[in-house]
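Researcher: Structure for this, please.
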Amino acid sequence: MSGTAQIGITGLAVMGRNLARNFARNGFTVAVHNRTTAKTDALVEEFGDEGSFVAARTPQEFVAALERPRRLVIMVKAGDPTDAVIQEFAPLLEEGDVIIDGGNAHFEDTRRRERKLRERGVHFVGVGISGGEEGALNGPSIMPGGSSQSYESLGPLLEKIAAKAKDGAPCTTHIGPDGAGHFVKMVHNGIEYADMQLIAEAYDLLRKVAGYSPAKIAETFRGWNTGRLDSYLIEITAEVLAHTDAATGKPFVDIVQDRAEQKGTGRWTVQIALDLGVPVSGIAEAVFARSLSGHADLREAAKDLAGPSATVLDASAGAAFADRVEQALYASKIVSYTQGFHQIRAGSEAYDWNIDLGAVAAIWRAGCIIRAAFLDRIRAAYDTRPDLLSLLSDEQFATEIGAAQDDWRAVVAEAVRQGVPTPGFAAALSYYDGLRADRLPAALTQGQRDFFGAHTYRRTDREGSFHTLWGGDRSEVKAG
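Model: Predicted structure, token format:
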């Protein structure tokens, strides 16, 4: 078997299979391999007319089918299965070849693998792929990390299969060295968690307070999707809410158990944010909301706790409230993206990745789950001011969120008054107020820490660290 394939994919579950078909549809010869050869045969038999495939039954055949430098994509479960595949194929590769991990790997695993393979002269590229099964087939947003040399070899292929934004630009770029691609994909998923939670809270408020039916909420979301909230998640939310269950005739959303699951990337986002000291409270509340939903026994034990029951507003008041919810949703969404981009900036600085935040926003404009119309404006904000510390410091976003804040506050207050949980809206508003506060109560916190642990504090009127001798005369000593 001569090396004729420009790209190879091992691991032919749905994502791997669709990615292989995407490459083939775009004119590349694709070597395909799976531990279970029946999957390899089935792909070629069913989709062989979509392009050129080379079926390989053994790792040796698979590697031999690839042209130099070899580009080998691994599409298996993250963790130990990925390591096992790398250990199987790496000895068969030569200097300059490229292994690409297209799974949802933890970025620290990617950094470890990249270091180890670099020692043997093999490039390792951790690639974040967003867009699900449909995106893998028709054009995802692709976030590759790794060396610049590896992108020279791999980039033209990724740019061909990636989603295209409205201006025709491919939704992929070289994110940065080693684990940068998987880090950015992790934060993407964290923002996704927050976005979905905020949309769910908007739905809950429209139903319980405005008194809207799922069908009417679907109509409302369709209207919102024609304006500044235009996004994939708003679009599909309308579809879900409009769906009727065939077996019962009830709204689909009413026959689904209210227990949300998670695969880990949202949790990783929060864990790493804590390590970096970056406040991602909106993302954290979204992760915890899913966790709370899953504790059915805890919720059952607490269902009789005292508290108000939501009272439906009249039609006129309900319509006005719905408009305020749109404002709250938009403002909270801006905060979620603000927190996510802050985390990417912090990670880039901590790991010396030099990530271009404007480029990240650009490749999220199509293909990925959080694609939204206002990403064009986020890109423009960072392109204009690469040193922009916060999206809330951008004049246009600051103006919009300022205009929305009264309605935002009214929605959170009404939710509290009516006993409807809105952790995402409330956390986003608290973050906003925390940023704009002249002084925070952290001054008191530092006093407490100095009292019980001699942790010292800094003064507002002179430089240095200080400690108060809290027993006796409570004199102050300079600590550094």
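Researcher: Any notable elements?
Model: The chain has a mean pLDDT of 96. Strands lie at 7-10, 30-33, 53-55, 71-74, 98-101, 123-130, 141-144, 457-458, 465-468, 476-478.
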